[in-house]
Amino acid sequence: MDRGWWWKFGLIVAVTLATVWLLVPTYYSLVVLTPAERNKIALLEQRLPAWSPPARYRLNLGLDLQGGIHMVMRVDTKTALQKRTERRGQQIARYITQDKKLGEVKADTDPERLQLTLTATDPATMDAIEKEVLATFTDFSKVSRDGATLVLAPDESQVNRFREESVDQAMLVIRNRIDKWGVAELDVRKLGTDSIQISLPGRSDPEQAKELVGTTAQLEFRMVDDTNPNFFREMFQNTPPPENSGITVTDEEGFAQLKGANREALLAYVKDKTPQDREVALECIANPLKKNDCLAYRTYLLHQDVPLTGESLESAQASISQINEPEVNITFDPVGAREFERLTEASVGKRMAIVLDDYVHSAPRINEKIAGGSARITMGRAGSKSFEEWLGEAQTLALVLKAGALPAPVTTGEIRQVGASLGEELVRKGGMAALVGLALVVLFMALYYRKAGLIADVALVLNGLLILAGLAIFNATLTLPGIAGFVLTLGIAVDANVLINERIREELSHGKTARQAVDQGYDRAFWTIFDSHVTALIAGFILFATGTGPIRGFATTLIIGLLASLFTSIFVTRVIVTYFVHGRNAQTVSV
């Protein structure tokens, strides 16, 4: 065999081993652990062997396969807009009267019509007031003007943006809260324009879920204890963490921090090891493959006292600075501005942690005293992160700040406990039916196409493993539509092998040698198979982009399955057939 064949064979072996390795957490989660233990991530990590991938790379079961809690939360954007309009009226009145000193002005709000009426004490000042207000507060537009009275309303584009951001903020808070509950297969997604659908597979206490999700978020500005930058390193050296805990020491942020993938294990390790009036908070390091998941956690040592909360924050907006660096601009109300000025004056050179629901989302350094109630948090461009990654972090931080500062009321629209649609007996029967069906396909291919059919069977099994491993990489949740996509892609893979074998038979009937028949059979079937797969892939991507819930689950499985089918039907089978025909110098091919 030539060198080209050997590297192709080595690639197939490597892919097969990697596939089996990636499915280890899935096997332990679905087979080794009992259904009651399946959602306990800490227990799964303890059971996994040391050489296994992390527990996050596993295939989950959806609500329809294992039951759980289904919730629909409604975001009251109307009330949030009303409060925002009232708050803007107060800001405009202070700006005109105190900052610009253009005269006394009174602000009245019509909550139902979302209109703001400004009335000047001196009608002669209204022209200057109107000009200044429209130039400064561009998120409001003029509705009408009648003498000393000016009526404003929020700009329609700003209203739509605010509604969308309100739902995004609520989703962020909900994810943070449920993450601390330790739910393995959390699924939070938008439902329409003002609702959020939450699926908690494996959970059985709707009231606990309602209490957890429905409470108001708490945003806090707290000082980081910088007195001993090596505090966590000394803790790690003096009292090492338990073996297999995965806890390490890192200097990624310029000072010593503990880092680990298991939140509960990290908190348990630092418990009762902090100085008086101090406590440990964690930062979630997002998974680049799945932003809703935490890849790991880092520790911060914080002062227990909370000098400033999100109640004093008026606005937060991500933007690009003049030197092309992502930043977040924040503004406090008058009370918050005084407290923020006092805090920054006493803490120059120290870090201030921005904490939402006990999670540290950023810890910027205070470079100088900040007066006036406005501040800028620069994200920087250091390290290996790209500009887009830094900008994404700035936008996330702005959402975090607004989630605590301007939370739209969230109410429970629907909450119910869901039983598995299939049930254990039907799952077992469905699995048996799938195995029987697969066995019949394998038997048919082997009998009808003989040795070439057996090769196709090997590729078919590898194709199924690749689909499961691909879903595990993305920590996907397997549902009934996902199973349908799995079965469909296996059928497409079989169809591709049938097409190749029939093409080889046709070439043999024309008097071609075994080598010629195999080479031309694969070459001439390639574009037919490629075109059909690409067409199906386009449909899969459209379903994924436009669908929701079960439709996206089906599309995800379909896309991964089609890519796996291209690899196994065209590449894997050809390498194996080439070995028997070219490597062993066969004069005939059994098709």
Give a brief description:
The chain is an alpha+beta fold and about 600 residues long.
Commentary on this structure:
The structure is a single chain. This protein has 591 residues and is α+β, with helices and mostly antiparallel strands. It has 4 domains: 173 residues, Multidrug efflux transporter AcrB transmembrane fold (Up-down Bundle), CATH 1.20.1640.10; 35 residues, no CATH class; 148 residues, no CATH class; 186 residues, Gyrase A, domain 2 (2-Layer Sandwich). Helices cover 52% and strands 21% of the residues. The chain is built from 16 helices and 21 strands. The strands form 6 sheets. The chain has a 4-stranded antiparallel beta sheet with strand order 7-8-2-20. The protein has a 4-stranded antiparallel beta sheet with strand order 3-4-6-5. α1 packs antiparallel against α16 and α13 packs across α14. The longest helix is centred in the last third of the chain and has 51 residues. The two termini are 22 Å apart. The model has no long low-confidence stretch (mean pLDDT 81).
